[in-house]
Write the structure tokens for this entry.
Amino acid sequence: METVRRRKLRAYFNSLDVRGKGMLSSDSFGDAARDLAVSLDIPPEHPGAVETRLVSESLWVNLVAPMASYTGGEAEFEEFVQGMEQLMLKDPRDYKQIFAPVVESWFELGDRDRDGLLSQDEYLMMLVGGHHVPVDECQSMFEYLDSDADGYVTMLELQGGVFNFFYSTSAEHPANRMFGAF
Ligand SMILES: [Ca+2]
Ligand SMILES: [Ca+2]
């Protein structure tokens, strides 16, 4: 049986592999950010949309490309897992440098009314629009992330949830479903 971590990473991989090719490339990461902008009705050339795309593509450069050198710029699931395991998941301190900036950029683009908080609608746009996660999964994840139940998710709440998605080893952790059922 697959470990919890591999199953979670498979859900994340599938959320990036929107065309179901079984392979990821730099474009897969950029496309997720582009799909987010489209779902928010933001033109692709908008500076915030461009920045989010570039920051998202840095995940490919930092985490996956080093493992994909033999396969012509595409990574299959095993290479993706190796990159994640070796380049980020071994040391939780790596999250801040590698993944937190991506979450920050997504949050800023997704915060449409710029009040510094994500409403449920804004959160749904991010995860349904950008990562094609089913709506009902996103609704329950929003409730979990909104730990003080004030109806909004803060940057800190979102970063905590994404961190736990990657680093929690408990099969029951609610953050495991960030990118859908696993
Ligand atoms: Ca907002
Ligand atoms: Ca809250």
About this structure: The chain is about 60% helix and 0% strand. The radius of gyration is 15 Å.
